[in-house]
Amino acid sequence: MMSLKGFAAKIFASYIHQKNQKWIQDPVAVQDQVFKELIQKASTTQLGKDHNFSAIQSHEDFVNQVPIRDYEGLKCYVDQVVKGEENILWPGKPLYFAKTSGTTSGAKYIPLTKESIPYHIEAARNAILSYIHETGNTDFVDGKMIFLQGSPELTEKNGIKLGRLSGIVAHFVPKYLQKNRLSSWETNCIEDWETKVDAKDTAEVVDRIEYNLGGSYISKGDLVFMDLITQNAKTGWKRPIYFTSVSGYDFFDVNDYLQLEGLVYKFVPIKGGSNSRQPQRVADYKMYSNLVKSYKYYGMKEKKNFFLDDKAAYVPGDLQQMAMLLAKTYLNKIKTYEQYQAQVAKVGVAGAPVPSGFRSVEDYLAREKDSLGVYRSRAKEVLNHILTEIPETVMPMRKEYKVDYGITLLELGDEANAKKVLDRAVKDCVQYGTYFVKWEDQMFGARTCGCVGVYTGIPVAADSCRGDSHLVLAGRITSLAFCHVDSYKALCS
Questions:
Q1: Domain assignment of residue 314, yes or no
Q2: Domain extent at residue 23
Q3: 242 belongs to a structural domain
Q4: Mean pLDDT score of the chain, rounded to an integer?
Q5: Last residue of a domain, one of 146, 162, 188
Q6: What is the value of pTM for the model shown?
């Protein structure tokens, strides 16, 4: 029996079919009408004036006055549109730029206007409706529809939204189709196509999970956990296993197989490794969505007297650390690309290994190059988002986090915010060191020597102590010296 949705689809398909017959019966006349409307409307633009659109009356006139050109031939116009100028290729400004990857001239920006967008939407819709009208088959409208696309997350360039064409179009998918749609919004937000279709992850899946229980006995919890892993593996990992990320890193010694996604770690059959028992595999696309888009910080930035006890401070403290891990993940992707690019320049394409999850050296270089700007902007965005949403007055950040935040922002090119954070880090470290020096002086007597901290050439502290330690980064931090005596050290790294 046909469903109500299927019945409605047949009626709508019949209506669209009848509507399309008007131009199908006389396509040349309709094309000529559309042609003249486009020429007339574009006649006042820069392109129209340069090619005397006002004098064009026929297709032959158009051929004579407008030469055939590729993107490079029109780039001078597109560049003006990208800068935010109006009335260049079409009246006003476009609503979107569809960004495409190119092998000859790099990224290309295709303007999409409010007049052109409906044609992109209707073309796809009418193709489906034509199939329904011709075959009478509506079964698929009640099933799932796969729409694997470019990321629907958009950025802005001079006030114009920028993204992949399929990602832009995704914002116009009717609500009645959203419930049936696969893959998820989160999956489509993944920048890397190989990761998006799970090809990369599939290649990294291990066939054997090994971990050390330690100790001289096996607890009931160990047995339950081992059973969960075994049963999940047998069923193709259909049931996810999660651990909270705010209770430490000791999870039955399987840290190497944990993937950080936000306030939880997901157990995955992929060995991502760990450092100082902290899992190193980060699902950056999920982390970014959670930290910046999904998580609510409940007005911490608006409340001057917001109190967090030692337990309540766990979550915001972990969020600060997660943002740092995510930003470093993005920064490492940028550095990896730069190192790989240098390797290719040295040994040539033929001598360079093909990165995992990519079809070729050229594929990696072209696609990752397009993503570098996204990585950099997201890394800066997530750090500054946390600094705004979890202010210092509410949840003071640990000294070592501040230094990490400051140095990472510096490497990302955000010098203004980097200086603010590093200034606070220096102030904290000097205060910390001064306290312990005074405490040692009171307990054991004063000890003297010179110690001065300098940040970007500005003296920030002078105190008496024994020895110093230095942190130097690319000339930006000239010297960061902290007092220390015997077993006490003021450390920021």
A1: no
A2: 4-188
A3: yes
A4: 78
A5: 188
A6: 0.55
